[in-house]
Design a protein that fits this description.
Blueprint: E1 4-5, H1 8-30, E2 35-41, H2 45-60, E3 64-70, H3 76-88, E4 94-97, H4 107-112, H5 125-132, H6 141-154, E5 161-165, H7 172-181, E6 185-189, H8 196-201, E7 205-208, E8 226-229, E9 233-236, E10 245-248, H9 253-257, E11 262-263, H10 270-289
Parallel strand pairs: 1-11, 2-3, 2-4, 5-6, 5-7, 7-8, 8-11
Antiparallel strand pairs: 9-10
Helix pairs in contact: 1-10, 6-7, 6-10
Bound molecules: NADPH dihydro-nicotinamide-adenine-dinucleotide phosphate (NDP) and 5,10-Methenyltetrahydrofolate.
Function: Catalyzes the oxidation of 5,10-methylenetetrahydrofolate to 5,10-methenyltetrahydrofolate and then the hydrolysis of 5,10-methenyltetrahydrofolate to 10-formyltetrahydrofolate.
Organism: Aliishimia ponticola
Protein name: Bifunctional protein FolD
Length: about 300
């Protein structure tokens, strides 16, 4: 058997089209243009790539993009002052602070300083609490993108066995909450899980968010299961030439694709959906801020 490839890149393009259509309506009918502010502290090359591509796609869907690049040694007080200014700026509907932050900055303090209504990452403690209690919130982009793909592939997820590998606050935990919200039977695995292969073998849905290149082999996968690979790992690729690298996920794609029913590739899977969902969350935040109807199908 060979798995259906869930094309996140194509799916993300359709999400961005819906976002763009809604942005056009907001402008034409209400004179409002959604705005997304992205804050990057330091010069991590990978983060710079993501921030650039977020900014480009923000503009492509017709929204305003505000990029704030701060020195790696920016003080916490200066960063908090910027967040305060963005919180008070009526043209800014979404604020994203790129993680991880340099070590001298308290990540929780900084994230919780963002106005929860503008927290398009969904990392503020108040959004985490709302999601955990099944209330309307800003939903973290990566898990939201994964859920959209799962719903599109399966329809109803109710009663399915889902295993999430990883319990981070940005992927694993909110992913588990969303799957539970869709009535899956959810197991969260992590580095202390006993007999991970056996746990994963139970799953109809496997979401891998570990940060270990190609960790999940095909023989852990139940035949026909759906595999969502969140991992983004850069590894050496000597076959492409000396010093070359390539991106791989947290699952071993070839062996998993041979046994799974459906699988997301890396690149071209979860990553593009994350950015599309960030744009979707910004439109949602803009609509809520202006008391306007929210776009259909862009959030849970
Ligand atoms: N595609 C996208 O848009 C995004 C991709 N990513 C990628 O997703 C991956 C995960 O990111 P993130 O959640 O931030 O990572 P974290 O490092 O925050 O969390 C990793 C999780 O994996 C668990 N883990 C580590 N080793 C093992 C193991 N051997 N067996 C089982 N579990 C293990 C850890 O367990 P413990 O808690 O016990 O330490 C932890 O809960 C990374 O590759 C990252 O680059 C992240 C965000 C967005
Ligand atoms: N506050 C915050 N929010 C985030 O959402 C956030 C963050 N910090 N820090 C870093 C991680 C990582 N992340 C990715 C987004 C898109 C791709 C993506 O589009 N990847 C492409 C490939 C890109 C490439 O070629 O490098 C793909 O998978 O096809 C990857 C990773 C968001 N993150």
């Amino acid at each position: 058997m060979s798995a259906t490839v869930i094309d996140g890149k194509a799916f993300a393009a359709t999400v961005r089209e819906k976002v763009a259509a809604h942005v056009a309506r907001l402008k034409a009918d209400h004179g409002v243009t959604p705005g997304l502010a992205v804050v990057l502290v330091g010069e991590d090359p990978a983060s710079q790539v993501y921030v650039r591509s977020k900014g480009k796609m923000t503009v492509e869907v017709g929204m305003n993009s505000y990029e704030h690049k701060l020195d790696v040694d920016t003080s916490e007080a200066d960063l908090l002052a910027l967040i305060d200014r963005l919180n008070g700026d009526p043209d800014v509907h979404g604020i994203l602070v790129q993680l991880p932050l340099p070590g001298h900055l308290d990540e929780d303090l900084v994230i919780n300083a963002i106005d929860p209504a503008k927290d398009v990452d969904g990392f503020h403690i108040s959004n985490v609490g709302l999601l955990g209690t099944g209330q309307k919130s800003m939903v973290p982009c990566t898990p939201l993108g994964c859920l959209m793909m799962l719903r599109a592939h399966h329809g109803d997820l109710s009663g399915m066995d889902a295993v999430v590998i990883g319990r981070s606050k940005i992927v694993g935990k909110p992913m588990a909450q969303l799957l539970l919200g869709d009535s899956c039977t959810v197991t969260i695995a992590h580095s202390r899980t006993k007999d991970l292969p056996q746990v994963v073998r139970r799953a109809d849905i496997v979401v891998a968010a570990v940060g270990r290149p190609q960790m999940v082999p095909g023989d852990w996968i139940k035949p026909g299961a759906t595999v969502i690979d969140v991992g983004i790992n850069r590894i050496d690729a000597p076959e492409k030439g000396a010093g070359k690298t390539r991106l791989v996920g947290d699952v071993d794609y070839d062996s998993c694709a041979a046994i799974a029913g459906a699988i997301t590739p890396v690149p071209g899977g979860v990553g593009p959906m994350t950015i599309a969902c960030l744009l979707a969350n910004t439109v949602t935040a803009c609509c809520r801020a202006n008391g306007l109807a929210e776009p259909e199908g862009l959030t849970v």
